Amino acid sequence: MERYDEMLFYVGTYKPKGEKALLLCSLNLISGEIRNLAGISGIESPSYLAVNSTKSVLYAVSEQEEGEIHAFSIDARTRELSPLGSQRTEGGSPCYVSISPKDDFIFVSNYMGGNVNVFPLNGDGSLQVMSDQVRHQGSGLRQDRQEAPHPHSVIPDSSGGRILVCDLGLDQIVLYQTEEGKLIKHHEVNLPPGSGPRHLAVHPSGQWVYLINELNSTVTVFESDEQLGALGILQQINTLPESYSAGSNDTAADIHISPCGRFLYASNRGHDSIVLFHIHASTGLLEVADWQKSGGRTPRNFAIIGGVLLAANQNSGNITSFTIDADTGRLIPTGNILEIASPVCITAV
User: Fold this and answer.
1) CA pair distance 142, 150, nearest whole angstrom
2) Contact (CB, 8 A) for 95 and 65
3) Which residues pair with 115 in a beta bridge?
4) Using one digit for the tens of pLDDT, what is the confidence trace for 76-130?
5) Does this model's pTM top 0.90?
6) Cα(61)–Cα(94) distance, integer angstroms
7) For 216-275, what is each residue's pLDDT tens digit?
8) Of 13, 117, 197, 244, which shows the fewest CB atoms inside 10 Å?
9) Residues 254, 244: contact at Cβ < 8 Å?
10) DSSP secondary structure letter of residue 16
11) How far apart are CA 183 and CA 221, in angstroms?
């Protein structure tokens, strides 16, 4: 059972299925101390995770050549995991899973193969057979990274009636309507060639959507009209300092907004930093405020948990913690480090 000063979270890694690849960890909200509590084996490279609204089921993609999606029941007392079964995604390297607001469907994006899946859920959260999938077609500007479609994330809107798919290979956000487990294309939003759209963060107000672009290390700000399913571009801003000379290893990765809605954070691989933006209260536009080194190499993913930011540094094999200054949003290193091989996703219970 969690204490009031402690939160539990799961970590997905790139470990093989014979090792404990999916981990349960704890975070002390006062000190920033991080501990590894337990882990399970039997799943290959669980690189992205999602927990349902009742905190009773966890879903994990298995990022391998023949992709899979796994479901695990969560023990209400210990938060340990028990397998509920899996399904094939009919694509390669699935890299994102999300859950509909009513916990009745999950959506999976497959980086290789260009397909996005829909899986209905049983009452206990276990997976039914796939009800639908769509396959993207085309290519982008960069033949080294955009030679084909690469759906990198799939995110439902608050109503559950639409999903937004960021396709890194096509430089597009593709919007679909969801009807009884089926995906119907609504329209697409085009990004500047070579952007490489990766992940989205929706402002708590619902007014604005923020997109992290992997290949050109930028954030795009959209005005959101959820009723119409429309996104209008307001701003594009760099995630790296102007004085920094970016190289081929510099790619943006993850993006999150603080619960208060005042601060936006994004991670930079290569520069190995978390950038802080202040969000203008009336316009949603961004202003750069600070960069903080992530405390390791290649911060692929990070999470905000109760006033603390946890950064998963994939290539240095560690998770680091930072206290968030409530007034400025700046990150203050706590000095706590948890050594975990190839951590790539953090999801709070």
Assistant:
1) 12
2) no
3) 135
4) 999 999 999 999 999 999 999 999 999 999 999 999 999 999 999 999 999 999 9
5) yes
6) 6
7) 999 999 999 877 778 999 999 999 999 999 999 999 999 999 999 999 999 999 999 999
8) 244
9) no
10) -
11) 25
